[in-house]
Amino acid sequence: MPKVKIPRKSTNIDMTAMCDVAFLLLTFFILATKQKPPEVLAVTPPNSVSSKAAPDKSILVTMTAEGKVFLTLGDETKKDAILEDFNKIKGLQLSGSEMAKLKKSEFIGQPANQLKSSLASNREILPTQMPGIPIDSTNNELADWIRSVSNVYAAASVDVKDLQNMLLVKGDNAALYPIFKKVKQAFKKNELYKFRIVTNSEDIPAGSELSKQPPTN
């Protein structure tokens, strides 16, 4: 008895639903991924075994190997108010357009008396060309910036402990201690006695006391 041959038909798969899912997942990962905050200059911080993650919204002070100090206002919800407060207490009299340009800056790296002229210029000033924020004993402008930070967070009823948790200091391994000391003095002048130091993570040395401690969850 002859076998019945079933006619072959081409298989058509509708990929519309799968494409929709793929694009939805791609959109989700793009929106949910945390972007790395911009770095002022390439610095090589010291190593440590600490594994605590830095907060997303932070006030970052960067010290370069040459001794320059930069400030990054990572909390976008408070950045405008901090800049407005600094403009007021220093009497810079920045115009609306100059303030708008300053608010777009990723970091601060110039003396207050140079801000107005640099903002009025159409020429972009690279971080390597900036002198940094003055931190001399007679003119520690970093303390003035931290004062504006404290004023804004105090007005928003943010606890001092929460603010101190957001203060980060990232210094190059070649930066000299006197620079770090002047940064500490800027915090101390504003009654902020605690902050976090950004380091490169490394493994716990085998056989050390720290390696014998049980892991923390």
Low-confidence stretches: none
**Count of beta strands:** 6
Order of helices and strands: HEEEHHHHHEHEEH
**Radius of gyration of CA atoms, rounded to a whole number:** 26 Å
User: How many domains in all?
Assistant: 1
For the sheet with most strands, the description reads: 4 strands, mixed
- The rounded distance between the terminal residues' Cα atoms is 73 Å
State which percent range the strand residues make up: 5-15%
Mean pLDDT: 81
As a percent range, the share of helical residues equals: 40-55%
Tally of alpha and pi helices: 8
- Which class best fits the helix and strand makeup? alpha/beta
How are the strands of the largest sheet arranged? 3-2-4-5
Shape: elongated
Structural write-up:
The structure is a single chain. The protein has 217 residues and is an alpha/beta fold. The chain has one domain (47-201). It contains eight helices and six strands. It has helices at 16-32, 76-89, 96-103, 112-120, 141-155, 160-166, 177-189, 209-212, and strands at residues 47-48, 59-63, 69-73, 167-171, 196-197, 200-201. The strands form two sheets. It has a four-stranded mixed β-sheet with strand order 3-2-4-5. It has a two-stranded parallel sheet with strand order 1-6. The protein is elongated, with a radius of gyration of 26 Å. The N and C termini lie far apart (73 Å). The model has no long low-confidence stretch (mean pLDDT 81).
